[in-house]
């Protein structure tokens, strides 16, 4: 196996994306470009410890690969987490961090005619955002795309100014935002987006029950914390008898 290539990333800016989430935009400073596929991740070496396992953190790239060679991360705050403390309270504009990669196989499948269902919670939306940017640019061959995003309340919705663009600009695209702790939200800025007062599981189970999804042609992608993914796999594979090869996932944490 060839040695890992480490890249230098300079922070251009960061800003709040939700109550406990910030977006970080870096510029690649290395002579070698970072050529990646939407859905892949980079592993960052952060100045938060002496040992490798203390310093290394992996983050999905939240934007498509283009000639600007900018890299975006969407990072949630974890109280007393060394990486969170570094990103939210220490790193400054112009600072440089090291990152290796890209790595990962959680990418858009080349399966023409399938019904793609993207299910995520929290910052699990980041790799899908990169994929949707690529689809806006290059199109897609799926029969439909259904994005299901879960969070607690409306203030937790990420990339909130991009949802209507996805809905209007991507053919056969549908989106559902599931708010688990808010049931009186007026979605003024989310034209074409459906809202549910539930967890994400209710949205895809409803589509299966109503036959909106064809069990033989539905491809489920799951991204988020282990609890959500474990429950989704149990419901899809064990209860709904969806074939295992039609379920793909990326685990956070």
Can you put this structure into words, describing what you see?
The chain has 253 residues and is α/β, with parallel strands linked by helices. It has 2 domains: 6-103, Translation factors (Elongation Factor Tu (Ef-tu), domain 3), CATH 2.40.30; 115-252, Rossmann fold (3-Layer(aba) Sandwich), CATH 3.40.50.80. The chain has helices at 52-55, 82-90, 125-138, 163-169, 200-209, 226-239, and strands at 6-18, 21-28, 41-45, 56-60, 70-76, 96-103, 115-121, 144-151, 173-179, 194-196, 218-225, 247-252. A 6-stranded antiparallel sheet has the order 4-3-6-1-2-5. The radius of gyration is 18 Å and the shape is globular.
Task: Give keywords.
253 residues, alpha/beta, Elongation Factor Tu (Ef-tu), domain 3, Rossmann fold, 6-stranded antiparallel beta sheet, 12 strands, 23% helix, 34% strand
Topology, pairings included?
Elements: E1 6-18, E2 21-28, E3 41-45, H1 52-55, E4 56-60, E5 70-76, H2 82-90, E6 96-103, E7 115-121, H3 125-138, E8 144-151, H4 163-169, E9 173-179, E10 194-196, H5 200-209, E11 218-225, H6 226-239, E12 247-252
Parallel strand pairs: 7-8, 7-11, 8-9, 9-10, 11-12
Antiparallel strand pairs: 1-2, 1-6, 2-5, 3-4, 3-6
The CA-CA distance between the termini, in Å, is: 26 Å
State the total count of DSSP E strands: 12
The name of the CATH topology of the largest domain is Rossmann fold
CATH architecture of the largest domain: 3-Layer(aba) Sandwich
Coarse structural class: alpha/beta
By oligomeric state, this entry counts as: single chain
Order of helices and strands: EEEHEEHEEHEHEEHEHE
Tally of individual domains: 2
């Amino acid at each position: 196996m060839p040695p890992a290539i480490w890249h230098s990333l300079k922070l251009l800016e960061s800003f709040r994306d939700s109550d406990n989430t910030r977006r970080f935009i870096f510029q690649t400073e290395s002579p070698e470009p970072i050529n990646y596929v939407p859905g892949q991740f980079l592993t960052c070496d952060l100045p938060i410890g002496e040992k490798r396992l203390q310093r290394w953190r992996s983050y999905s790239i939240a934007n498509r690969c283009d000639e600007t060679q900018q890299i975006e991360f969407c990072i949630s705050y974890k109280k007393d987490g060394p990486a969170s403390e570094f990103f939210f309270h220490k790193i400054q504009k112009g600072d440089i961090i090291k990152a290796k990669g890209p790595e990962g196989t959680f990418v858009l499948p080349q399966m023409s005619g399938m019904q793609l269902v993207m299910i995520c919670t929290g910052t699990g939306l980041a790799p899908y955002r990169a994929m949707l940017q690529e689809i806006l640019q290059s199109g897609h061959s799926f029969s439909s795309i259904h994005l299901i995003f879960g969070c607690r309340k409306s203030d937790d919705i990420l990339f909130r100014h991009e949802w209507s663009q996805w809905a209007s600009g991507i053919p056969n695209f549908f989106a559902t935002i599931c708010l688990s702790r808010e049931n009186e939200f007026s979605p003024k800025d989310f034209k074409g987006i459906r809202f549910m007062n539930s967890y994400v599981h209710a949205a895809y189970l409803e589509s299966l029950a109503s036959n909106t999804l064809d069990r033989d042609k539905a491809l489920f992608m799951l991204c988020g914390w282990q609890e959500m993914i474990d429950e989704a796999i149990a419901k899809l594979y064990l209860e709904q008898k969806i074939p295992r090869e039609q379920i793909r996932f990326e685990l956070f944490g």
